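hiii so my PI (J.) wants the whole complex modelled not just the main chain, which honestly fair. so below is everything: two entries, each one labled with what it is. i double checked the lines twice but i was tired so who knows lol
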Amino acid sequence: MDIIDRRPNPHGKNIENRRRVLQRARSAVQQAVRDSVARGKIREIGQGNAVSVPSDALHEPTFHRVFTDGMREIVLTGNKEFSRGDKLQRPQGGAGQGAGGDGQAGENGGGEDSFRFVLSRDEFLDLFFDDLELPDLVKREIATTESGTPSRTGLSNEGSPSHLDLGRTMRRSIARRIGLGRPKPDDLRAVEARIAELEDQRPLGADALDELETLREQRGTILRRLARIPWVDPVDLRYRRYTVLPQPATRAVMFCIMDVSGSMTERMKDLAKQFFLLLHVFLERRYKKVEIVFIRHAESAEEVDEDVFFHDPRTGGTIVSSALELMSGIQRERYPSGTWNIYVAQASDGDNASSDTQRTASLLQDAILPVVQYYAYIEITGSGAVIRGETDLWRSYRAIADHNPHLAIRHVGDRKEIFPVFRDLFSRQHDTAEA
Amino acid sequence: MGQITPNGPSARRGGLLYTGNDWNFQVIRDCYDAIEEIARTELGLETYANRIEIITSEQMLDVYTAHGMPLGYKHWSFGKRFIGHENAYRRGLMGLAYEVVINSDPCISYLMEENSATMQALVIAHAAFGHNHFFRNNRLFREWTDPSEILGYLEFARGYIARCEERHGLRAVERILDAAHALQNQGVHRHSGARKLDLKAEQQRARDRRAYEDSMFNDLWRTLPTEDAPGGDHRAEDALSRRRLGLPEENLLYFLEKHAPRLASWEREIIRIVRMVAQYFYPQPQVKMMNEGCATWVHAYIMRRLHELGRIDDAAYLEVIHSTSNVITQLGFDAGGGPSFNPYALGYAMMTDIARICTEPTAEDRTWFPDIAGNGDAIGTLRHAWAEYRDESFIQQFLSPKTIRDFRMFRLRDDTSQPYLLVDAIHDEAGYRDIRRSVALTYDPGTFYTEIEIVDVDLLGDRTLVLEHRSRAGQLLQPNDARQTLNYLSTLWGYGVILKEIDTQTGAVLTTHTANVPT
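here's the output for the full assembly
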């Protein structure tokens, strides 16, 4: 008999198989992720990360019989009261379908209507971004640079003396000294003491003379070795290494501004939400704390919570400047530009009262753009994707964008355009011409 | 439990094997030795060499997933099973088995590190001796499985499939595996006369086949004019080719592997692997109840003896009783027991009952079991039963009136033309035989496997494959699944497939499923 301890063996043999399940159910999981994005709040996305997919996405069909009608006999246990000839009411749903349904009963321990995955946040975001055709979010950097701070990143064998790691250096020195057999100073002292002792005695016997001879030889060796094997050698030296890592600024605020007048359909809001969500995830990876301010507007603007922002319809005309004014006011009051990184994302279908456009443009140019890191305007076009004439709003924004690189404006017509537009907006080249 | 006298010299007396809950490797070794002594001398068990592996609960989940096999090829369905188990485990719906044991030589038992010392001893008695003896001696396992080679074969299968994935891409391999998995229940030779799997020769043959095919491949052959005899006797030719194809054939995977015209040779090999694995596991469900009953009875016996011999203390023995009775609980029909028996409960009850009949028979037992009642050789009788029967025949032979009464079994007649379910037999004199026959029937492989055969191929036409399912009205295939499975079949065959469901009695076609040529 052998006993083998397998506990140290590699765990997670099924990680690859699990990955394949995700791959297999990708479209279903993606749908589930998309739904949970639609249901969930922006800041909670990917936190409660269990998704359910309908089990037919992973169904493994086999040939098996079902009992639908006719006659069969079933043996049960635990009879308490029945006698032969008793008649029992059929259980709800018909015993016929339920019990006879699975030819291999007990195989899976109960039926499943849906299959539940617990996704890690990364898996979740991957799937979500994949939907948006996101190859690589993290590598994209916002154009604004920030100060870096040096941070410990391991050890190096060269560096400035002030970075010398004494502990590590000495540890290596000791190891080397032991390895090379460098005598200890105490050994030398002992040998010398003995020599002195012997030298003091006279006359010396033959034994003592021999000993003295050996000791002198030893002393010679010790001294030679001491001279040859240094206490600290350049190969022992270890320096702490520092790398300058970009230090994310700690706080950012993100203003979501959306036109909610009647012309914005649910689909358009959904696109806007995807965009805001992307921006949030993106900022969240850079900043320790991201605040979100939701501003919606029609004729007038108000600050609202997320639910109202996305789900409460309004009607009426559109005055964009009201939202910008409100945003500017909130910013001055609560998020001073000295201590906050400010981002604005505005989604609109481009409708605006024609008299208001001039005022909007000047607000944007004079009050807002000077204090924000980045201002993204996406204009959501109708589902027909017919190229419309440029809206007034678009025209005036474009004029400003021409000499303000941190204002970016794009059109979005469809879900699959969200990510390319997003990437386009947040890549370094703001100077690429807008198509 | 019947009183059983040890038939060997009583185990060497020693002190307690351990105290408390903690175990270490020495404790396991000591327990093993003490258990082995009882298993060999008192029970006369014959086992394969044992290998005991200690694993963590997470590793246990992995082992669960792959049919309890330590290595398997990669496929998403295993991931699905894994996630299912993991979810159930995390939410506390399922405890992990204390042990998993696999039918290999040496016989590997997995023990979880979380088990207490008593549980480790119990599991060793249960798996390393009970199951192991059963694997080694039961006729079905002896006929169908080759335990010395299975681990090597699985290793080969994993490597082969991984190489195919590298060469032909994940998707191409998955396409074949998905289809083959759907058909694996139709991928076994069921009838006796089949030779035992020789898995090592199997691997060698696979290599030889590849080499031969490579050497024989000559593209020129394709350009040879064929002997086409228009207007020939198609019927005679058809019959001839049907014979050549070995039709009718119930092993669908075998047929496809041999005759599907469009498969590449590596695809045939993958089908073969799925078929071999399916064949290897084919006996398991047919003896599950006996196998669990045997292992449970063996561990109960051995642990009781250990206690009597003073090798384990009262606390440990209480733990044994507690976990044994957990395992052998049979819920009544009204407590969610459903129509299926707990194989541990029924198996253990029947083993115990046989031992009782051998040693302390009642008058009833003497009429029902004249050949074993009072023969005084409980252990020999059990060993014989473990070796020679499968669940169905075992129940037919040994399910006694007493066990039927103990389980308070009753039979319902479910006739869908009636508004009521009729209780047509209960645990009384008139009902015993009916109940026993019905219980045995539910363990008949004929009832849990569907009978599907390939009966014809339209070789001169569009190569449509014709299958038949022999059944009865009201017992047809689940139509959605049948259609999807048929699509998989057609994927492998490469042409259209028709499945007719035929009434066994009248020969009438009840329904027809078709799958078109895959694109």
